[in-house]
Design goal:
Number of strands: 0
Strand content: under 5%
Helix content: 55-70%
CATH architecture of the domain at 227-428: Up-down Bundle
Number of helices: 23
CATH superfamily of the domain at 227-428: Hydroxylamine Oxidoreductase, Chain A, domain 2
Length: 429
């Protein structure tokens, strides 16, 4: 046993020495060992360094040679990675992650937030800075005083190690999929699926025990294409056969600005939603993702059980939408009666859920008082609590589905109705 361990250690040391010798004397390595040593260590531990075929200049070019000309260093985007990883690039380009930056900028609230949180990457932009950008988008970011960043491949495979193993760890998903409107990490990690994964890591379960991770369900077999059946907004077409459920979904689509509140006709916002696939707007695209998920579930469960569970999730969506639609129509009546004044950039005299707790789209520091409180409660009901109700259900987390989701929605609805009564009474006076 000792001999085997010695041989393994010697081989590891030999590999590390070969990598270090391969990079020793490289001007980039020599300089950055002093300036940013952790970055150098990451590179030296990578498959890129091990192969000897991917050097600093491969990705960053050869124009940066001194401390003074650091701005000449090229910051590579996905297309550089695609030169070697074409299949993964094409999968990523066709998946939902590729729409991170585009979808963020399609939402009015984005343009009311401080630039530090968007272009600076310390708020929504920190995660949504993912996706293939146009040259115009890159220039816009730089023009606002922020160095162009790109967090696509390196969002999951941290630069400069670009570790495949790191990207396959569910913690790689945690940094973005957590918090206010999408706490998938909290849901999964405290579910039976997550508990089994942690138990397996601790050696409390056999190495071949079933313990589904984020990647198991959403990036199966290492694919870089990700998609979900319901989409981020949790709405889809065609409308359900049940009349009440269909009416409720139409009400939500109106509040998303996708349908005109008076005519029911599609609006230009529909094109933006289609472009970034924030909703499933045809049966084929929805069914394709549902069938893929059923297949994934059947790795551990029977086909009938998997279908039953996902069908229950669809049913919860309809019940949550009943609460949501009642809240929307309550607030809409206040707009109709002139008790709430329509903000300048709202698409219609109607509640607009894509405000995301922000105001009318002007600068954030000038208009914080222009969105009514009842509108803020409505947006919270949709973006926070409805999300938790259905996402918690599909992530097999009873606490999130009920206490943080459904129960909070019922409280929101009660508050909205009471606020409406108070506002009417005040308005009469």
């Amino acid at each position: 046993m000792r001999k085997k361990n010695f041989v393994a250690i010697a081989a590891t040391v030999g590999l590390l020495l070969s990598v270090n010798f391969a990079t020793a004397g490289d001007a980039c390595i020599d300089c950055h060992t002093k300036v940013s040593p952790a970055m150098v260590k990451d590179y030296q531990s990578s498959k890129h360094a091990e192969s000897g075929e991917v050097t600093c200049s491969t990705c960053h070019g050869e124009e940066h040679k001194t401390a003074e000309d650091y701005k000449n260093a090229k910051l590579p985007d996905e297309h550089v990675c695609a030169e070697c990883h074409e299949e993964q690039f094409n999968e990523f380009a066709s998946g939902k992650h590729n729409f991170g930056w585009t979808s963020l900028n399609a939402i009015p609230a984005t343009h009311a937030a401080p630039d530090e949180l968007i272009e600076g990457g310390r708020g929504c932009g920190g995660c949504h800075n993912m996706g293939i950008k146009t040259e115009e988008q890159k220039k816009e970011q730089v023009a606002k005083g922020y160095r162009y960043q790109n967090n696509s491949c390196d969002e999951c495979h941290t630069r400069h190690s670009f570790s495949k193993k790191e990207a396959q760890n569910p913690r790689a998903c945690q940094q973005c999929h957590m918090g206010y409107d999408h706490p998938q990490w909290e849901m999964w990690s405290s579910s039976k699926h997550g508990m089994r994964w942690f138990a397996k890591q601790n050696g409390d379960l056999p190495a071949d025990a079933a313990a589904p991770t984020c990647q198991t369900c959403h990036l199966p077999e290492g694919t870089h294409h990700n998609e979900t059946a319901w989409g981020f907004l949790g709405v889809r077409l065609p409308l359900p056969d049940d009349k009440q459920a269909a009416d409720d979904r139409v009400t939500i689509l109106k509040a998303l600005g996708v349908l005109d509140p008076k005519t029911g006709a599609p609006t230009p916002i529909l094109d933006a939603v289609k472009a970034v696939r924030m909703a499933k707007l045809d049966q084929e695209s929805w069914q394709k993702e549902r069938d893929k998920m059923l297949k994934t579930c059947q790795q551990c469960h029977s086909a009938s059980y998997a279908k039953e569970q996902l069908d229950m999730g669809d049913s919860i969506m309809m019940k949550a939408d009943r609460l949501m639609a009642e809240a929307i129509t309550t607030v809409a009546a206040l707009y109709e009666e002139g008790i709430i004044e329509k903000p300048a950039n709202y698409p219609a005299n109607y509640p607009f859920l894509l405000t995301f707790m922000h105001t009318n789209g002007e600068r954030w520091d000038k208009d914080l008082d222009k969105l009514s409180y009842i509108d803020q409660v409505l947006v919270q009901m949709y973006m926070k609590h409805r999300m938790r109700a259905y996402q918690g259900f599909f992530h097999v987390n009873p606490d999130y589905a009920y206490w943080y989701g459904w129960n909070e929605m019922t409280k929101d609805l009660g508050e909205i109705k009471e606020l409406a009564r108070t506002m009417r009474a005040t308005h009469k006076k």
